[in-house]
Amino acid sequence: MRERLAEHRSNPACASCHLVTDPMGLSMENFDAIGAFRTRENGALIDASGELDGAPFNDAAELGEVLHNHPGVTRCLVRNLFRFTVGHVEGPLELRALVELAHNFGDGDLRTLLVELTASDNFRRTGDLE
Question: How many angstroms separate the CA atoms of 52 and 45, rounded?
Fold first, then answer.
């Protein structure tokens, strides 16, 4: 798979996305379509290593550590969960709520984040606060 995707990473029209998504996707190559672990695909040894923003990893477990330690992941997760939950891109008046949600999510408790998000005015009155 890594060799098949190499062309996308070298093609300027494809590279802007593939340079970001391929390392994460290839880290999961040790798992087949039904989630069974494997070390080879069509006889070839699977290389699940990659790099995310300069931090190397060897497999999906190490990618998890890299993401856990990445300073932008919390903001990204909170922002995208917010957008999905309220059904629109945040407006200027909602930015403070996003900062507060991200700050409170610092301990990584997803359940608490979901409760805070769905209890917020932004969720209950979506569209009114844009």
Answer: 22
pTM summary value: 0.71
Give the angle subtended at the CA of 74 by the CAs of 71 and 80, to the nearest 5°: 130
**Does 29 score more than 90 pLDDT?**
yes
Amino acid (1-letter code) at residue 25:
G
The span from the CA of 60 to the CA of 8, in Å, is: 22
pLDDT digits (tens, 9 = 90+) for 51-86: 999 999 999 999 999 998 998 998 999 999 999 988
Cβ 63 vs Cβ 57: under 8 Å: yes
Domain boundary, last residue among 69, 90, 115: 69
Residue 10 lies in a domain: yes
State the DSSP code for 31.
B
Joined together, the tokens standing for residue 85 give: 């939950």
Confirm if 84 and 113 have CB atoms less than 8 A apart.
no
Rounded Cα gap, residues 117 and 21, in angstroms: 28
Instruction: Report the Cα 95 to chain-centroid distance in Å.
Output: 20
